[in-house]
Amino acid sequence: MSSKLLSLLGLAYRARCVSLGHDSALEALKKNKTKLILIASDASERLEKEFRRECELNKCEAQIIRIKQTMSDINCALPQKAGVISINESGFAQKMKLLAKEE
């Protein structure tokens, strides 16, 4: 699946502005690096609830968005299959919020 969001996600990954997967994204959230959290459409509800809870506990201002892309779609853009992705740079985060709303 080709989309602007996945293309930008690949660019952000190459710029080292993302944390892929549960443990890596959770660590970025706890260190207050996270600007945006993307959750794949086929990731579990439990995963989303966990990240929402952690955001509240850590007083994180990052928005959590469930995107329409699946983990397999994400794997096409990135070298790893991930259900949750932390965007750690504000410029990429702002653009991805807009793209997620459009798609």
The end-to-end span amounts to 12 Å
- Radius of gyration, in angstroms, nearest whole number: 12 Å
* Name of the CATH superfamily: Ribosomal protein L30/S12
**SSE string, helices as H and strands as E:** HEHEHEHEH
* Named CATH architecture: 2-Layer Sandwich
Structural class: alpha+beta
Key structural traits:
60s Ribosomal Protein L30, Chain: A, alpha+beta, 5 helices, about 50% helix, four-stranded mixed β-sheet, single chain, about 100 residues
In short:
The protein has 103 residues and is of the alpha+beta class.
Ordered list of secondary-structure elements with their pairings:
Blueprint: H1 4-14, E1 18-20, H2 22-30, E2 36-39, H3 45-57, E3 63-66, H4 71-77, E4 84-87, H5 90-102
Parallel strand pairs: 2-3
Antiparallel strand pairs: 1-4, 2-4
Helix pairs in contact: 1-4, 1-5, 2-3
